[in-house]
Structure formats: structure tokens, C-alpha cells
Design a protein that fits this description.
10 helices, 7-stranded parallel sheet, alpha/beta, 329 residues
Amino acid sequence: MKLYDDKLIILTGGAGFIGSCILRLLNELGMSNVVVVDQLGSSDKWRNLSNKKFLEYIDKKNLMTWLDVSDRASEIEAIIHMGACSSTVETNVDYLMENNYRYTLNLAEFALKNDIRFIYASSAATYGDGSRGFDDNHDTLEELQPMNPYGFSKHLFDLWAKNQGVLNQMTGLKFFNVYGPNEHHKGRMASVIYNLFPFVKKEGLIKLFKSNDPQNFKDGDQCRDFIYVKDAASLVVDILKKDIYGIFNVGSGEANTWNNVAKGMFSAIGAPPNIQYREMPEDLNAKYQNYTKASMDKLKKTLQYFNPTPIHEAISDYINNYITTNRIY
């Protein structure tokens, strides 16, 4: 597939974390034929668009009406759907079902009906506690048991796509723990690196959660597959360039402990590690993933390359070039 300049790309969540980084990379390829869809509200998420080029901005609630204009579909080549509620502690299930599931389904049906490329964000939260592994095999989708409503809302669309027999006509991306620039607006849902860095700088201290499963994980040795947002966005753009369909994991393929992440943060500012541990909040305790590690074999085989940025190198870039300078990527 060529990257075109004669038709539109619809980018939902385009002012958000991953979406704005995708827009940055599209701009670097000389592409500004992008319609950004988002809801800016009263946060400073708008800053993520301040150094980008795009054709139009549409509020999320107006997108379906905008798409319904006669012959609009003929102007669109692709929809990259990154917009969603990404809060793993959101308790309003009706909201998640409408915002994450139904909205995605409506966009997917529009894309399928009009032969428009559709790439959407799923989530590693669909894997639940990890006891059934982290393999992006379509055959085992029904076996997965998400641990929270957010993961369920994402999983439900994956199942819909499979049951409709359309996974060969769209691309779903199961993002693991993404971190990096442009997440400043996410509050509690921003990465530990962003939220804890002020304490590193001011107090020379990081407090991590104690383990809720001490028999298997020591304090701070809970593991996550962390992927730098620049790498994640680059994978999305590379997938857009090619005829790649199905569900794929988007992670680093490595499991790093929170302790290692903390050490990387101290290393980034040339300070000795100083790590303490605190109790895990109750709303996280019963729904906490203690281990994630993406199986990346399918995507590596499909793209024929995969070179994620080493975690300490990425943390240093993030802290020194973005957090401390307040820069937008």
C-alpha cells in the first residue's frame, strides 16, 4: 500500500497520547491530509496538536454525522481509531460499552461498507491475569478473561470482529504498557515514569506498590511489557503502509520489573536508586496484572523487522528531552 496524499486519513484520538505521536510521524512523511477526531475538554491535551499539521479537527460526538455526508466515504482512504476511554479503573460499564465498544463497531461498519482501511486500538488488558498467556492468536480469543470493564470493552469488539469474519479486513492492535511524551493530560492513567518523576527530582525517592502476590513477586518485581510510544506509533504507521490484517500485539516482547524502571529513572538524571514501597490502592488490588509480556513473533514475522528502543535508553530520552523540558513530541 502506498501512503497517499490524495485521500483523507481519519485519526480518532488524534490529540491524545498515541494518536498525536502517530500524527507526528505522518507529518514527518509529508502527510497532512489528516482529519483529527477527539474531545479536548478543559485539559491541556490540545498542546499535543500545537506542533502538528492536519486538515481538520472534528469533535468526537460529531464524527458519525460528518461521515454521513453524501460521497464523504469516497474521500477517505483509512481510519486509524485510537480514541477510547483508557482508564483501567473506570467503573461506569455502560459508558465503556458505548464509548469503547459501540463507537468502534459503528466506525468499523462504516469502513467495511465503504472499503476503507480500518486500524483500531485493542489492549493488553484483554489478556486478564495472563494465566492464558499473551499470544495474539485469533483461535484463542474466546478463552481470554479480562479483569476489568475497560479490558472487557476492548475484548468484546475483538470478538465481534472475529465472529463477523472480518479480521482479514481490518487490523487490531493490542497495546501493552505504552509510555513516553504527550501523555501529560492523562492524569492517573499516565505512566509511572511521568507521575513519579516529580518525586525523583524533588525528593530523590520513588515509592512503588507493594506486591499483592508476594509468593510469586517481590515488592517492585511485578513485571510489565513496556513499549516506548515512539516505537508504538512507528509500528502503526508501518502497518498503515502495508496490507497487514488481523490482531497483533504491540509491545517490546520483554518483561521488565517496576524496580528496573525506577532504576532507569534514577540513571536518567545521574542519581543513585532510592526505592520504597507502599500499599496498593484497593481499586487496583483485585484487578492488577502482575506480569505481562507480549508475544511479538507474529508481528515480527509479518513486518520482517522489530527493533524496540531499550528501556533505559527510552526512559532517558523521555525524561531529559520531554518531561524536564515540557516539550511535545
